[in-house]
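Protein 1 of 2
SEQ + STRUCT:
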Amino acid sequence: MNFTLRQLAIFEATARLGRLTLAAEEQAISQSAASQAVTELERQMGLALFERRGRELVLTSAGRDRLPQVRLILSDCQRLAEGSGDDLAGQLRIAASTTIACYVIPGVLAKLTEQYPGIRPAIDIQNTRGVLQQLETGQAQIGLIEGPAVHDYLQIRRWQEDRLALFVTRGHPLADEKPVSVEQLETLDWIVREPGSGTREVFDTAMQAAGIQPKIRLTLSRQEAIKQAVLSGLGAGCLSHLSLDADGSGRFVPLNTDLTLVRSFSWVCSPEAIKSPLVQAFMKALNPMHQP
């Protein structure tokens, strides 16, 4: 068998992107050349790696079995190109939950790229569920999530804690109430994140633990949209204290409650990607005391 790295790269890209045209575009070759590469790889293996469903190419069971091995080979080759020490360079693909992407990553990347100017970060902002999907499909090398998660293949490790705040506008009847009772919380309309986000998971869990059936008036996927909805008088909100602290306008007041609104930030990585010098450098910038 004489597999080429190009054949393996086309196979991996097609599995990740679901379409041969997209894989060919990413690898900067023609669609016919990409098709030929996959066909030749299947011939040498004596296996069908994909089956077509409409316009999509879906991995067969044989393709799914071999994909982690192929990614490991490609990851080993990529590390040769990334260099080491002060010469570390290359693209670092990051998938991150909204709060982390907005309020944590910018400072981390500033520190990282100052030390390694050759690193080119690319950030894809998703909710927790979306970040896991990015890692599962190999579209990101490292993920950062806000919600609890388990996975049978990806490594997930807690990294630091975050505190959520239930908040209203200054001047709201409950703004100066200390503490706000369960009965008072039940009277409020709520503007919250979408299901699948770490923020929403903590909010739902805390409300359930307190025996509250919250009245969800609006579900939004962006933190600024939630703050603007609260400002407009549509209800109370729930966001990370990082978001409120960064606002700095004094327009919002956290409610004083007995609810448990603490969560963990975690990093997510595949066993092969965690060996990348780029990922290791990013983790060190994320937490100087980190040991993978």
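Protein 2 of 2
SEQ + STRUCT:
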Amino acid sequence: MTVAALLGLALPATAAHADYTFYRTSPHVGACWNKVTAYGGVYQVTNNLLNGTSSTQTVRVEVHRPGVGLQSSQTYSAAAGVWKAGAVANVSIYYNDAYRVYLNGAKILDLAAVGFPYYMMNCQTVESPSVKIRQAISYGMAKLDSLYVGCAAGTYRMGTVAPTTLYHDGTTCGQSRVYKQPAGTTGYDCSGLIYKMFQHAGVYFPWSSSAAMKSGVPKLADKSQIRVGDLLVKNGHVAMYLGDGNGDGIPSVLEATPKWQNPDGSWTGVVISDARPYLNSSLYTAHRVSGT
């Protein structure tokens, strides 16, 4: 049964088949962002509260505009064991608007909409029937727009916060760049992100490199068998398959890769990308993690 059926709601088509980014768990509070206009424009935000606790929980969502104030708000409660979703639909969330979420009066998210890139459309993810996969994807989605720090970054390639500005020399492990990690930021490389996603979901996952994943994670007989949460791997890169959540005919992957360089010299890395190059390349094989 889909989330929409459980809720008795007619949710937007993309959200009905998508995982949400969860901002916190127990209870799960999150949202699914759907792009309405081009880069930096309008988003439709479907909010959710999945209450697995023993008491009633209340969420309030607000959108604020600098120099103007509150633009819109929504408050909704869920009794113990109840799932609820609501929508601040077609809200004009423009550059530097603030999206704020409160749980029982305490602020749990204050997110500046500094021109969300296209890959923040989290509803590109097909909903997996596996709780473990949903947990893993929720972790990865929460890391969207994190930096790429390369294969030489040690624990920093798995989301460790940089205490000072660091430079990770990827040329020592076969990459072509030195990656900057400003103080206070987190970053990943491809295998570091996947490793942390499964660790977050409580799945046994001892492989911390793409080569180890390719040889250690069970291989599918054919890519036609692939499903959400499976890995597409070659020696040197790995991405997680997300499916075609928004129904545009283009399946997606979640990956950490040096997508573009920022003005401070760092590289944005955790993104949602087109899955077709990986599905169509003989270099990549499909793998399914046991226990998911």
